[in-house]
Every structure is written in structure tokens, then in C-alpha cells.
Amino acid sequence: MCAGAQAMTVMEAASAVLFRDRCVLLVERGKGLLAGRWSLPGGHVERDETPVAAARRETREETGLDAIDLSWLAEHSVEVPKLDDRPAAYYRIHVYFGLCAEGTPRAASDARSACFVPLSRLGQLPLTAGAEELIRRAWREVSGEV
């Protein structure tokens, strides 16, 4: 490693792309660097937790809804710069897709709001990096549409 260079922390995270009636479940982030941006429900993988279990837990914590029949979609990577007392980090995000149980989303945890967004409106929202591509890819898997 070069003099003065610091190792970047690698963090494991998981997200879920969940559909209902041609809509996708999104949360508006309420804190930190992503405040005001819409993203997939997700967060850190806890010690002794599998990524798919983390995706289910984070979905329930952030929206109050249960993920159904999750399947692996992709591994997505994001670098987050150093902020205040938090070191720079590299997030390895395990992304799953599936359907969402009945019920109305209610924002909780670090989410400012949570709702189902029609796929046709994705381009009108400030989404987190890579979210739209992952949503479109998952929709192709679920629907068979190109």
C-alpha cells in the first residue's frame, strides 16, 4: 500500500427489488448522504446472517412488509466517501428480487417514506446509483418482458 493510503472498509449489504401490480417497492432515504433519494429497501448484513435473510429483515424494518419468494439477481458495488467520523467504505450489495406480501408500506428505520412506484415513473424520481438498472433487470426476470 502507498504511504498515506488507507485501506477501504468492505461492508456486506443486501437489498430487495419487490414488485406488486407493475409497481416496485421503494423507500425514500431520510438520513445521511442518500437523504431525499429513493432506493430499494436494504441495509447491512448482520453477523451470522445470510444476505437473503438481511434483505428480508431490512424490507420488514423499513417498510413493514414481507418479501416473498426471493431469488438472487446480482451483486452491486458502491463506494461511499469518508464522511465526518465514518471511514470511506466499499459496499458489496447482494440484490434479490421477488414479490411483496399484501399490505400498505409504512416508512420506518431510516426511511422517510415508503411506497409502491409504477415502473413507468422511475425516471421521474431521484434514485440511488444503479437502482433503475437493477429494477428493470429484475422486472425482466419476473415478467419475461424485454
What does this structure look like?
The model has no long low-confidence stretch (mean pLDDT 90). The protein has a single domain (9-143), classed as Nucleoside Triphosphate Pyrophosphohydrolase. It contains 2 helices and 7 strands; from the N terminus they run E-E-E-E-H-E-E-E-H. Strands 1, 2, 3, 4, 5, 6 and 7 form a 7-stranded mixed sheet that branches. With 146 residues, it is of the alpha+beta class. Helices cover 18% and strands 40% of the residues.
Compact description:
This protein is of the alpha+beta class. Helices cover 18% and strands 40% of the residues.
Strand and helix map with partners:
Layout: E1 9-20, E2 23-29, E3 38-39, E4 42-44, H1 51-63, E5 67-80, E6 89-100, E7 111-118, H2 131-143
Parallel strand pairs: 1-6
Antiparallel strand pairs: 1-2, 1-4, 2-3, 2-7, 5-6
Beta strand count: 7
Order of helices and strands: EEEEHEEEH
- The helix tally amounts to 2
Strand content: 35-45%
**CATH homologous superfamily descriptor:** Nucleoside Triphosphate Pyrophosphohydrolase
Mean pLDDT: 90
Overall tally of domains? 1
Radius of gyration equals: 15 Å
CATH architecture descriptor name:
Alpha-Beta Complex
Poorly predicted runs of 5 or more residues? none
Distance between the termini: 45 Å
Supply the helix-strand structural class: alpha+beta
Task: Note the overall shape.
Answer: globular
Give the proportion of residues in helices.
Answer: 10-25%
Write the CATH fold name. Answer: Nucleoside Triphosphate Pyrophosphohydrolase
